[in-house]
Write a structure and sequence with these properties.
mainly beta, 2 domains, 13-stranded antiparallel sheet, 3 helices, disordered N terminus
Length: 317
């Protein structure tokens, strides 16, 4: 599949934090060392890592999640990364001593803006924590505070509790983990339905309605994607005119997303209306219509591909 076709498929498909509700963050990878910036939206080259500067203008932020939603293994690796950043050993910064709060997800907003092809990978999102609290002994506490200040990481709280010391850092400018996704090879399916000039719904998804509203014997076709309502349950309906001398029309339909699957469709509508005109005794001109079956059909070609998280991306990053 070429880049243009993939962009068409994923355009208009919003990607929201809701996609993460099942097993949140379990597909993420902790940065070897936390850093201030990662190129979200950049192509990910297996074995090498991100390629390019990403797409800063195409990144959205979802905030307000708890650090407990992060997978245990990922939390452990984040703690190790923080230890590496601040010069502390693994015992001082294990996951039991590190608490993350105010998780932020920085994610590509519109996949359709990325110049990607099926089979490629992309650095899709990164996560931050607004506050990072680390509880260590007093000796390591002094080292931790000094290291954070030396690296320009604000210390928002410093509290002694017996033999331990709790240092709270402002993590607003520190990415802790990231996620890479790939686009699977698409599958294509063709469905043919005869409509007979009547309303029809295909796959319980696309509804086509016909109105004999054109004076030349043509129709208006109204198409609604029943699986893609906008906010407030308002459905987007497209309208096309098929004049009386038009044998067929072809156009793309808005894609829709279900879980990690994105489907887009190309519809070919064939329409032919045989009209017999007559005049009533009152002098009113009317007509009767017939729709030859073989000349009135909808051919729907559906292209589906899967957005797949890449577990343990093959690069040290």
């Amino acid at each position: 599949m070429n880049n243009r076709m993939l962009a068409v498929l994923v355009s208009l498909v919003p990607v929201t934090a809701a996609a993460q509700t099942d097993g949140i963050f379990k597909e993420h990878t902790a940065l070897v060392v936390p850093r201030a910036n990662i190129p979200i939206g950049a192509e990910w080259i297996p074995g090498i890592g991100p390629n390019g500067e990403g797409t800063p203008s195409n990144v959205g932020i979802s905030a307000g999640m708890s650090g407990s939603t992060i997978d245990t293994t990922t939390r452990r690796k984040i703690a190790l990364g923080l230890g590496s950043l601040l010069g502390l050993d693994a015992n001082a910064t294990n996951e039991r001593n590190v608490k993350l709060e105010g998780i932020e997800i920085h994610r590509v907003k519109d996949l359709g803006q990325l110049p990607l092809a099926a089979g490629q990978q992309v650095l899709f999102e990164g996560i931050k924590a607004k506050t990072i609290s680390i509880t260590v002994d007093k000796v390591n506490g002094a080292k931790l505070k000094a290291a954070a200040e030396a690296k320009g990481i604000p210390v928002s709280a410093d509290v002694d509790a017996g033999s331990t010391r709790k240092i709270t850092l402002d993590g607003s400018d520190l990415f802790l983990a990231y996620q890479v996704i790939s686009f699977s090879k698409p599958t294509v399916r063709t469905t043919v339905k005869y409509h007979g000039g009547k309303d029809i719904t295909i796959d319980e998804t696309y509804r086509f309605r016909f109105c004999e509203c054109l004076e030349d014997g043509g129709v208006e076709v109204f198409m609604t994607n029943l699986l893609a309502p906008s906010t407030g349950a308002v459905f987007n309906t497209q309208r096309k005119e098929l004049p009386g001398n038009t044998a067929w029309a072809e156009f793309g339909l808005p894609p829709h997303r279900q879980g990690n699957n994105i489907t887009a469709n190309l519809a070919t509508i064939r329409f032919h209306n045989d009209r017999i005109y007559y005049t009533t005794p009152e002098g009113e001109k009317k007509f009767m219509s017939s729709y030859p079956k073989e000349r009135n059909l909808i051919e729907l070609r559906s292209t589906k591909f899967r957005i797949e998280p890449v577990r343990n991306p093959s690069a040290s990053y």
